[in-house]
Structure of GTPase Era:
Amino acid sequence: MTTRAGFVALIGEPNAGKSTLTNAMVGAKVSIVTHKVQTTRARIRGVAMEGEAQIVFVDTPGLFRPRRRLDRAMVAAAWGGAADADIIVLMVEAHRGVTEGVERILEGLADIGKGRTVALAINKIDRVRAETLLALAKDLNDRYPFAETFMISAEKGHGVADLRKWLAKEIPEGPWLYPEDQIADLPMRMIAAEMTREKLTLRLHQELPYQLTVETENWEERKDGSARIDQLVYVMRDGHKGIVLGHKGETIKAVSKAAREELEEFLGRKVHLFLQVKVRPNWLEEAERYSEMGLEFKDGNT
Ligand SMILES: Nc1nc2c(ncn2[C@@H]2O[C@H](COP(=O)(O)OP(=O)(O)OP(=O)(O)O)[C@@H](O)[C@H]2O)c(=O)[nH]1
Ligand SMILES: [Mg+2]
Protein backbone atom coordinates (compact mmCIF):
# COMPACT_ATOMS: atom_id res chain seq x y z
CA MET A 1 0.00 0.00 0.00
CA THR A 2 1.27 3.49 -0.75
CA THR A 3 1.12 5.87 2.16
CA ARG A 4 0.29 9.52 1.86
CA ALA A 5 1.03 12.45 4.12
CA GLY A 6 0.60 16.18 3.97
CA PHE A 7 -0.30 19.42 5.66
CA VAL A 8 -3.75 20.93 5.38
CA ALA A 9 -4.05 24.51 6.63
CA LEU A 10 -7.46 25.69 7.82
CA ILE A 11 -7.82 29.41 7.39
CA GLY A 12 -10.69 31.84 7.76
CA GLU A 13 -12.05 34.73 9.75
CA PRO A 14 -12.01 34.54 13.53
CA ASN A 15 -14.82 32.28 14.79
CA ALA A 16 -15.27 30.46 11.46
CA GLY A 17 -14.92 27.11 13.22
CA LYS A 18 -11.34 26.18 12.32
CA SER A 19 -10.50 24.77 15.72
CA THR A 20 -13.80 22.93 15.95
CA LEU A 21 -13.06 21.30 12.60
CA THR A 22 -9.50 20.44 13.61
CA ASN A 23 -10.81 18.64 16.68
CA ALA A 24 -13.54 16.88 14.68
CA MET A 25 -10.96 15.67 12.16
CA VAL A 26 -8.53 14.46 14.81
CA GLY A 27 -11.28 12.96 16.96
CA ALA A 28 -9.92 14.60 20.10
CA LYS A 29 -9.68 18.09 21.47
CA VAL A 30 -6.26 19.39 20.48
CA SER A 31 -7.22 23.02 19.94
CA ILE A 32 -9.30 25.21 22.21
CA VAL A 33 -12.71 26.49 21.14
CA THR A 34 -14.81 29.36 22.46
CA HIS A 35 -17.69 31.45 21.17
CA LYS A 36 -15.39 34.48 21.21
CA VAL A 37 -13.26 35.69 18.31
CA GLN A 38 -9.46 35.38 18.31
CA THR A 39 -9.36 32.29 20.47
CA THR A 40 -6.54 30.53 18.65
CA ARG A 41 -3.28 32.47 18.82
CA ALA A 42 -0.73 30.23 17.15
CA ARG A 43 -0.59 27.34 14.71
CA ILE A 44 -1.81 24.13 16.26
CA ARG A 45 -1.16 20.89 14.44
CA GLY A 46 -3.58 18.01 14.80
CA VAL A 47 -2.94 14.64 13.16
CA ALA A 48 -5.72 12.59 11.56
CA MET A 49 -5.51 9.20 9.86
CA GLU A 50 -7.70 8.28 6.92
CA GLY A 51 -6.86 4.84 5.60
CA GLU A 52 -3.23 4.97 4.54
CA ALA A 53 -3.17 8.75 4.56
CA GLN A 54 -1.90 10.87 7.41
CA ILE A 55 -3.43 14.31 7.26
CA VAL A 56 -1.79 16.94 9.42
CA PHE A 57 -4.31 19.70 10.04
CA VAL A 58 -2.85 23.09 10.76
CA ASP A 59 -5.33 25.12 12.77
CA THR A 60 -4.49 28.81 12.44
CA PRO A 61 -5.48 32.05 14.17
CA GLY A 62 -8.35 33.87 12.49
CA LEU A 63 -7.49 36.35 9.75
CA PHE A 64 -8.53 39.94 10.41
CA ARG A 65 -7.15 43.42 9.99
CA PRO A 66 -4.33 43.50 12.55
CA ARG A 67 -3.80 46.53 14.75
CA ARG A 68 -1.71 45.57 17.73
CA ARG A 69 1.52 43.62 17.91
CA LEU A 70 -0.21 40.43 19.01
CA ASP A 71 -2.72 40.80 16.15
CA ARG A 72 0.08 41.08 13.65
CA ALA A 73 1.91 38.05 15.01
CA MET A 74 -1.31 36.00 14.87
CA VAL A 75 -2.19 36.99 11.33
CA ALA A 76 1.39 36.34 10.20
CA ALA A 77 1.22 32.89 11.78
CA ALA A 78 -2.02 32.16 9.93
CA TRP A 79 -0.74 33.18 6.50
CA GLY A 80 2.52 31.40 7.23
CA GLY A 81 0.57 28.22 7.95
CA ALA A 82 -1.22 28.56 4.62
CA ALA A 83 2.02 29.20 2.75
CA ASP A 84 3.64 26.05 4.19
CA ALA A 85 0.72 23.73 3.53
CA ASP A 86 0.05 21.27 0.71
CA ILE A 87 -3.62 22.13 0.73
CA ILE A 88 -5.47 25.17 2.04
CA VAL A 89 -9.08 24.97 3.20
CA LEU A 90 -10.84 28.31 3.48
CA MET A 91 -13.64 28.21 6.02
CA VAL A 92 -16.53 30.62 5.61
CA GLU A 93 -19.48 30.91 7.95
CA ALA A 94 -22.70 30.04 6.10
CA HIS A 95 -24.86 32.59 7.91
CA ARG A 96 -22.40 35.46 7.53
CA GLY A 97 -21.53 34.90 3.90
CA VAL A 98 -19.07 37.04 1.99
CA THR A 99 -18.10 39.64 4.56
CA GLU A 100 -15.46 42.31 4.08
CA GLY A 101 -13.13 40.05 6.01
CA VAL A 102 -13.75 37.16 3.61
CA GLU A 103 -13.13 39.47 0.67
CA ARG A 104 -9.77 40.44 2.12
CA ILE A 105 -8.83 36.81 2.65
CA LEU A 106 -9.70 36.07 -0.98
CA GLU A 107 -7.34 38.86 -2.01
CA GLY A 108 -4.59 37.27 0.06
CA LEU A 109 -5.34 33.86 -1.45
CA ALA A 110 -4.87 35.22 -4.95
CA ASP A 111 -1.20 35.31 -4.01
CA ILE A 112 -0.65 32.62 -1.35
CA GLY A 113 -2.96 30.13 -3.05
CA LYS A 114 -1.02 30.20 -6.31
CA GLY A 115 0.17 26.73 -7.32
CA ARG A 116 -1.62 25.17 -4.37
CA THR A 117 -4.84 23.25 -3.99
CA VAL A 118 -7.38 25.47 -2.27
CA ALA A 119 -10.74 24.09 -1.17
CA LEU A 120 -13.75 25.87 0.26
CA ALA A 121 -15.59 24.67 3.34
CA ILE A 122 -18.80 26.51 4.09
CA ASN A 123 -19.29 25.85 7.79
CA LYS A 124 -22.22 26.10 10.21
CA ILE A 125 -24.70 24.86 7.59
CA ASP A 126 -26.95 23.97 10.51
CA ARG A 127 -27.68 27.69 10.76
CA VAL A 128 -29.02 28.40 7.25
CA ARG A 129 -31.44 27.15 4.61
CA ALA A 130 -30.34 25.18 1.56
CA GLU A 131 -31.07 28.01 -0.94
CA THR A 132 -28.82 30.41 0.94
CA LEU A 133 -26.06 27.84 0.86
CA LEU A 134 -26.20 27.23 -2.86
CA ALA A 135 -26.16 30.94 -3.62
CA LEU A 136 -23.20 31.46 -1.31
CA ALA A 137 -21.27 28.55 -2.84
CA LYS A 138 -21.81 30.00 -6.30
CA ASP A 139 -20.84 33.51 -5.24
CA LEU A 140 -17.60 32.29 -3.65
CA ASN A 141 -16.70 30.08 -6.60
CA ASP A 142 -17.21 33.04 -8.93
CA ARG A 143 -14.66 34.93 -6.88
CA TYR A 144 -12.00 32.23 -6.55
CA PRO A 145 -11.21 29.00 -8.44
CA PHE A 146 -11.68 26.57 -5.55
CA ALA A 147 -10.70 22.99 -6.34
CA GLU A 148 -13.77 21.73 -4.48
CA THR A 149 -16.57 23.05 -2.27
CA PHE A 150 -17.78 21.35 0.89
CA MET A 151 -20.80 22.20 3.00
CA ILE A 152 -20.17 21.20 6.54
CA SER A 153 -21.10 21.56 10.13
CA ALA A 154 -17.89 21.09 12.08
CA GLU A 155 -19.82 21.09 15.31
CA LYS A 156 -22.48 18.57 14.33
CA GLY A 157 -20.09 16.53 12.20
CA HIS A 158 -21.98 16.93 8.91
CA GLY A 159 -19.78 16.62 5.85
CA VAL A 160 -16.65 16.19 7.92
CA ALA A 161 -15.97 12.62 6.78
CA ASP A 162 -16.42 13.56 3.10
CA LEU A 163 -13.96 16.39 3.44
CA ARG A 164 -11.45 14.14 5.20
CA LYS A 165 -11.73 11.50 2.47
CA TRP A 166 -11.20 14.07 -0.25
CA LEU A 167 -8.17 15.53 1.52
CA ALA A 168 -6.69 12.04 1.99
CA LYS A 169 -6.86 11.61 -1.77
CA GLU A 170 -5.34 14.99 -2.56
CA ILE A 171 -2.31 15.01 -0.28
CA PRO A 172 0.96 13.79 -1.79
CA GLU A 173 2.31 10.26 -1.60
CA GLY A 174 4.99 9.86 1.00
CA PRO A 175 5.90 8.42 4.38
CA TRP A 176 3.95 9.46 7.43
CA LEU A 177 5.27 12.49 9.25
CA TYR A 178 4.27 11.44 12.76
CA PRO A 179 3.95 8.18 14.68
CA GLU A 180 0.56 6.65 13.98
CA ASP A 181 -0.76 7.26 17.49
CA GLN A 182 0.29 10.89 17.78
CA ILE A 183 -2.63 13.33 17.62
CA ALA A 184 -1.02 16.71 18.23
CA ASP A 185 2.27 18.42 17.63
CA LEU A 186 2.38 20.78 20.56
CA PRO A 187 4.30 20.37 23.79
CA MET A 188 2.11 19.11 26.63
CA ARG A 189 2.90 22.16 28.73
CA MET A 190 1.49 24.35 25.99
CA ILE A 191 -1.64 22.23 25.60
CA ALA A 192 -2.13 22.51 29.36
CA ALA A 193 -1.76 26.30 29.25
CA GLU A 194 -4.25 26.50 26.38
CA MET A 195 -6.81 24.52 28.34
CA THR A 196 -6.61 27.01 31.18
CA ARG A 197 -6.84 29.93 28.76
CA GLU A 198 -9.97 28.40 27.26
CA LYS A 199 -11.66 28.14 30.65
CA LEU A 200 -10.67 31.73 31.48
CA THR A 201 -11.94 33.00 28.13
CA LEU A 202 -15.27 31.24 28.60
CA ARG A 203 -15.76 32.84 32.00
CA LEU A 204 -14.52 36.38 31.47
CA HIS A 205 -16.30 39.14 29.66
CA GLN A 206 -15.36 41.81 27.16
CA GLU A 207 -11.77 42.42 26.13
CA LEU A 208 -10.15 40.75 29.08
CA PRO A 209 -9.31 37.39 27.45
CA TYR A 210 -7.28 39.20 24.82
CA GLN A 211 -5.22 40.86 27.50
CA LEU A 212 -4.17 37.76 29.32
CA THR A 213 -1.92 34.86 28.60
CA VAL A 214 -1.23 31.60 30.39
CA GLU A 215 2.11 29.84 30.72
CA THR A 216 3.03 26.54 32.30
CA GLU A 217 5.84 27.36 34.70
CA ASN A 218 6.55 23.97 36.13
CA TRP A 219 5.56 20.36 35.48
CA GLU A 220 6.47 17.79 38.01
CA GLU A 221 5.88 14.07 37.64
CA ARG A 222 5.03 12.51 40.96
CA LYS A 223 5.83 9.02 42.17
CA ASP A 224 2.15 8.14 42.49
CA GLY A 225 1.69 8.72 38.74
CA SER A 226 0.04 12.12 39.09
CA ALA A 227 1.39 15.41 37.78
CA ARG A 228 1.79 18.71 39.58
CA ILE A 229 1.39 21.58 37.16
CA ASP A 230 2.04 25.22 38.04
CA GLN A 231 0.79 27.88 35.70
CA LEU A 232 1.04 31.65 35.58
CA VAL A 233 -1.77 33.84 34.31
CA TYR A 234 -0.38 37.16 33.11
CA VAL A 235 -2.74 40.13 33.16
CA MET A 236 -2.05 43.76 32.42
CA ARG A 237 -3.68 45.58 35.34
CA ASP A 238 -4.42 45.20 39.02
CA GLY A 239 -8.10 45.51 38.24
CA HIS A 240 -7.84 42.59 35.84
CA LYS A 241 -6.21 40.48 38.49
CA GLY A 242 -9.20 41.13 40.72
CA ILE A 243 -11.59 40.08 37.97
CA VAL A 244 -9.65 36.90 37.20
CA LEU A 245 -9.56 35.98 40.86
CA GLY A 246 -13.21 36.86 41.38
CA HIS A 247 -15.06 37.43 44.62
CA LYS A 248 -13.26 35.43 47.31
CA GLY A 249 -11.27 33.73 44.55
CA GLU A 250 -14.37 32.06 43.13
CA THR A 251 -13.55 32.66 39.48
CA ILE A 252 -10.00 31.34 39.54
CA LYS A 253 -11.13 28.38 41.60
CA ALA A 254 -13.79 27.43 39.07
CA VAL A 255 -11.39 27.93 36.16
CA SER A 256 -8.75 25.83 37.84
CA LYS A 257 -11.23 23.03 38.51
CA ALA A 258 -12.53 22.98 34.93
CA ALA A 259 -9.03 23.06 33.45
CA ARG A 260 -7.79 20.36 35.80
CA GLU A 261 -10.69 18.07 34.91
CA GLU A 262 -10.03 18.45 31.22
CA LEU A 263 -6.32 17.86 31.68
CA GLU A 264 -6.97 14.73 33.72
CA GLU A 265 -9.17 13.39 30.97
CA PHE A 266 -6.61 14.23 28.31
CA LEU A 267 -3.73 12.66 30.22
CA GLY A 268 -5.73 9.84 31.75
CA ARG A 269 -4.32 10.45 35.20
CA LYS A 270 -4.56 12.66 38.22
CA VAL A 271 -3.43 16.28 38.01
CA HIS A 272 -2.75 18.88 40.67
CA LEU A 273 -3.10 22.26 39.02
CA PHE A 274 -1.95 25.48 40.66
CA LEU A 275 -2.71 28.85 39.09
CA GLN A 276 -1.11 32.10 40.04
CA VAL A 277 -2.17 35.48 38.63
CA LYS A 278 0.56 38.01 37.90
CA VAL A 279 0.19 41.63 36.91
CA ARG A 280 2.53 42.36 34.02
CA PRO A 281 1.53 45.67 32.37
CA ASN A 282 3.83 45.13 29.42
CA TRP A 283 3.47 41.45 28.62
CA LEU A 284 2.08 42.15 25.15
CA GLU A 285 5.42 43.75 24.29
CA GLU A 286 7.66 41.02 25.67
CA ALA A 287 9.40 38.72 23.20
CA GLU A 288 9.46 35.83 25.65
CA ARG A 289 5.66 35.80 25.97
CA TYR A 290 5.41 35.36 22.21
CA SER A 291 7.83 32.46 22.05
CA GLU A 292 5.87 30.81 24.87
CA MET A 293 2.74 31.15 22.73
CA GLY A 294 4.54 29.74 19.71
CA LEU A 295 4.48 33.08 17.89
CA GLU A 296 7.12 35.14 16.25
CA PHE A 297 7.86 38.45 17.93
CA LYS A 298 7.89 41.12 15.28
CA ASP A 299 9.72 44.37 15.70
CA GLY A 300 8.04 47.63 14.91
CA ASN A 301 5.38 49.81 16.43
CA THR A 302 2.86 48.29 18.73
N1 LIG B 1 -23.81 26.37 14.84
C1 LIG B 1 -22.55 25.99 14.64
N2 LIG B 1 -21.58 26.52 15.40
C2 LIG B 1 -20.32 26.12 15.17
C3 LIG B 1 -19.98 25.20 14.15
N3 LIG B 1 -18.64 25.04 14.15
C4 LIG B 1 -18.15 25.82 15.13
N4 LIG B 1 -19.15 26.48 15.77
C5 LIG B 1 -19.05 27.42 16.90
O1 LIG B 1 -18.38 28.58 16.48
C6 LIG B 1 -17.62 29.15 17.55
C7 LIG B 1 -16.18 29.37 17.11
O2 LIG B 1 -15.57 28.12 16.89
P1 LIG B 1 -13.99 27.95 16.83
O3 LIG B 1 -13.71 26.58 16.38
O4 LIG B 1 -13.37 28.41 18.11
O5 LIG B 1 -13.65 29.00 15.68
P2 LIG B 1 -12.20 29.43 15.14
O6 LIG B 1 -12.33 29.63 13.68
O7 LIG B 1 -11.18 28.45 15.59
O8 LIG B 1 -12.00 30.83 15.88
P3 LIG B 1 -10.61 31.63 16.20
O9 LIG B 1 -9.68 30.70 16.87
O10 LIG B 1 -11.06 32.74 17.09
O11 LIG B 1 -10.11 32.14 14.89
C8 LIG B 1 -17.76 28.18 18.72
O12 LIG B 1 -18.75 28.67 19.58
C9 LIG B 1 -18.19 26.88 18.04
O13 LIG B 1 -18.93 26.06 18.89
C10 LIG B 1 -21.05 24.65 13.36
O14 LIG B 1 -20.86 23.83 12.46
N5 LIG B 1 -22.30 25.10 13.65
MG1 LIG C 1 -9.52 28.70 16.71
Summary: The longest strand covers residues 4-12. The beta strands are 4-12, 44-50, 53-59, 87-93, 117-123, 149-151, 213-221, 227-235, 271-279. DSSP finds nine helices and nine strands in the chain. Residues 12, 14-20, 33-35, 37-40, 61-62, 123-124, 126-127, 153-156 surround guanosine-5'-triphosphate (ligand 1) (CB under 6 Å).
